[in-house]
Amino acid sequence: MLKRISGWLGEALQPKHRRIACLQVEVSTACQLSCRYCPRTVMANGWRSEIMSWDLYERCLAPHFDLFAMIFLQGWGEPLTNPRFWDMVALAKKAGRQVGFITNALLFGPREIELACELDVDLVCFTFTGATAATHEHYRAGADFTALAGSVAALAARKAAGGRSNPTIGVSYTMIRGNLAELPEAVRLAATLGAGQFTANHLDCIPAPALENDAVFLSPRQDDEALVADAARQAASAGIFFRAEPPTLGGEILVCEANPLHTTLFVKADGTVVPCHQMALPQDIVSSLWFRGAPCGYSPLTLGNAADTPLPEILANRQAQEIFDCFERRAGFSLDRPIPEAPPVCKACYKLYGA
Ligand code: SF4
């Protein structure tokens, strides 16, 4: 489901003089869908659907928006289920920040299209898990593929009619063994609908052993590379930005995509601050995630809670600085010294291996 804005950040929004490029705000952990691969669905009985309060957002987060270039309203849920969602967008835009979000489009109708344009939202990403209704709706129970595609096209049409460059329209595609063959077609469809960028992400957070079979990188096949290359060609010929995580994983990479406290900082719906979306899941869910055939059993690293501690204080605390410094040292390693160890909590995360 998640999340991935780094493709867009890489293209359109460099951190420049700001320390952290993006504040990811989980405005809701509620969702109307029951995606087969989502921890929300797998852990249905233990999941707590929470809505971030307006007070927390306005009083505790908004005063610190200038620490970030972009406010990205999305976490482990559908952001538009927060009844104050558009007020949150408006407040972040009023603070001069770039604003983006990812949506399943179930609550993204004509009114929301107008709001996204009127408020000059910078990035709207739509989540796809297939290039056909049969595949998408198989993996995403409760989804409506036709309506989703219609929302992308309607936003593109509204932009064109208004001569607008914003919002950038993105498609975020979850690569699963059962839908990888549709990746090139999904890129063609996205371009036809009017998307300007396409990112293909792995199922990298595996909440049950059976789902390991769905992770492309755990059972690579010979034609996987060719499919991704074909998708890249489709994007190039349509003139849209394309980024896909590699279909096979290698060893540890120096800096994961989240690059905590450089690229992103994540605030959960209850104000808890964590380095990345992987650490934003509740403890009982994180400890039952699967990693290479076994429960990963790690505890997420929590940096503080924005409801009772100002964000700058949280960013300056020891735990935050340690993870920040760790990735910074790894990024700047030199051949005459050993590469610094990754944070222990990251070793059971596929993101550290390029997923
Ligand atoms: S490698 Fe670590 S910091 Fe990066 S996404 Fe995974 S848990 Fe988060």
Commentary on this structure:
- The protein is an alpha/beta fold and 355 residues long.
- It has 12 helices and 14 strands.
- It has helices at 6-12, 39-42, 54-61, 85-94, 110-118, 133-139, 145-162, 183-193, 224-238, 283-286, 311-316, 318-331, and strands at residues 20-25, 34-35, 68-73, 98-103, 123-128, 140-141, 168-175, 197-202, 241-244, 264-267, 272-274, 290-291, 294-295, 304-305.
- A 10-stranded mixed β-sheet has the order 9-8-7-5-4-3-1-10-11-14, with helices on both faces.
- The protein is globular, with a radius of gyration of 19 Å.
- The chain starts with 5 loop residues before the first helix and ends in a 24-residue tail after the last helix.
- Mean pLDDT is 91; it is low at 6-18.
- Bound molecules: iron/sulfur cluster.
- Residues 256, 258, 260, 275-276, 278-279, 345-346, 349, 351-352 line the site of iron/sulfur cluster.
- InterPro entries: 4Fe4S-binding_SPASM_dom (IPR023885), AdoMet-like_SPASM_containing (IPR034391), Aldolase_TIM (IPR013785), Radical_SAM_PqqE_MftC-like (IPR050377), rSAM (IPR007197), rSAM_sf (IPR058240).
- Residues 26-147 form the Radical SAM core domain.
Q: Helix count, per DSSP?
A: 12
Backbone shape: globular
**N-to-C series of helices and strands:** HEEHHEHEHEHEHEHEHEEEHEEEHH
Based on CA atoms alone, the radius of gyration comes out at 19 Å
Give the amount of beta strand, in percent: 15-25%
Largest sheet: 10 strands, mixed
End-to-end distance: 14 Å
Mean pLDDT: 91
